[in-house]
Write a structure and sequence with these properties.
Layout lengths: L29 H37 L16 H6 L3 H32 L5 H13 L2 H12 L4 H8 L16 H26 L3 H9 L4 H12 L1 H16 L3 H6 L9 H11 L3 H25 L9
Helix pairs in contact: 1-13, 3-7, 3-10, 4-7, 10-13, 12-13
Length: about 325
């Protein structure tokens, strides 16, 4: 007689899990993992190589040339220390170019003011605003050489500007716009204002239009006028673009080249920093001195950028 094991006359079955029901963990091959991890770095090799060869290596060579008396031709480069830098800040012909840069710095701030004004006005419902946008941006599309030749005829004696002044009865204001050293830089800086206002205008307009429309609606409900909306909504909302434009204005004012070079060739006291640098390098064969001037320009831009960052920190903008 069989023992009773839970059922009459039966035996309890034993539950044994089949081996094939257990899933085996599979891991991808280590070679495939290494390939996937290294793929992004392979794509970075070419741009990093270009950056190294065409940016960092020339920058190191530029610093080295700036402490030598190299003429750009001889294989030997005599080390002279900081003599080139001393000449830049002591000789009158080099100090004069910094004075010329002040005209363009003032012009760049006027340009930013005009651009911000037009961008603010045309961001609201204005009649023919698309036409005005095209007119303001059109000079940015023109080539610098074409603009230089155009204003060369505009400022010449009995040219376009003199003719307009005579028509409106202001002929007593006519002067030698390009021949008078006291006026030539004002004329050239005004040309830069006309050329670059459209670029700043587009930057400001895009930033203003990115501000949520609900903020303007809330301001209208609270009774805020356009001036108050500009002060408390637009200015905080485009602070980053204003900071960027400030840096571009300073660096652009120090590196002006096309307009004065084409119109006057740097004569009558209109030589800018870049024109003077090119003359030293390719006319007088003083590549070491020209390299030092390029280094000084780079340092000035970095200092201005640092000061701007300290005075106007690039914080997150929160208008809500």
């Amino acid at each position: 007689m069989s023992p009773v094991t839970g059922t009459t006359g039966g035996v309890l079955p034993t539950a044994v899990a089949p081996l094939e029901a257990v899933e085996k963990k599979t891991t991808p091959p280590r070679k495939g993992v290494r390939q996937r991890r290294s793929t992004p770095y392979l794509f970075l090799l070419v741009p990093l190589a270009f950056l190294l060869v065409f940016t960092y290596v020339p920058a190191v060579n530029l610093f080295w040339y700036s402490v030598t008396d190299w003429d750009g031709i001889d294989l030997t480069k005599n080390f002279i220390g900081f003599q080139n830098y001393i000449d830049i800040f002591t000789k009158p012909e080099f100090l004069r170019v910094f004075v010329v840069s002040l005209y363009y710095i003032v012009a760049s701030f006027l340009q930013m003011g005009f651009a911000l004004y037009f961008a603010t006005v045309l961001s609201f419902s204005t009649r023919f605003r698309n036409l005005f946008k095209g007119i303001l941006f059109f000079p940015t599309l023109l080539n610098g050489v074409a603009i230089g030749l155009m204003f060369l005829y505009f400022f010449q004696p009995n040219g376009t500007l003199d003719s307009v002044l005579k028509i409106v009865g202001l002929q007593q204001l006519t002067v030698q716009w390009l021949g008078n050293p006291d006026v030539v830089n004002i004329s050239l800086a005004s040309t830069s204002i006309w050329r670059y206002t459209g670029l700043s205008f587009i930057l400001f307009l895009g930033a203003i239009q990115s501000i949520p429309a609900s903020l303007y609606e809330a301001a209208d409900l609270d009774g805020a006028n356009k001036v108050q909306q500009f002060r408390f909504i637009i200015l905080p909302g485009i602070k980053r673009i204003i900071s960027l434009s400030f840096i571009l204005a300073i660096s652009g004012s120090l590196s002006v080249f096309e307009i004065p070079f084409i119109i006057t060739g740097g004569t009558n006291g209109s030589s800018t920093f870049v024109i003077k640098t090119i003359q030293q390098a390719f006319t007088y064969r003083q590549v070491g001195l020209a390299s030092a001037m390029a280094v000084v320009l780079l340092i000035i831009v970095l200092i201005v950028t640092y000061i701007q960052r300290k005075l106007v920190p690039d914080d997150e903008v929160n208008l809500t």
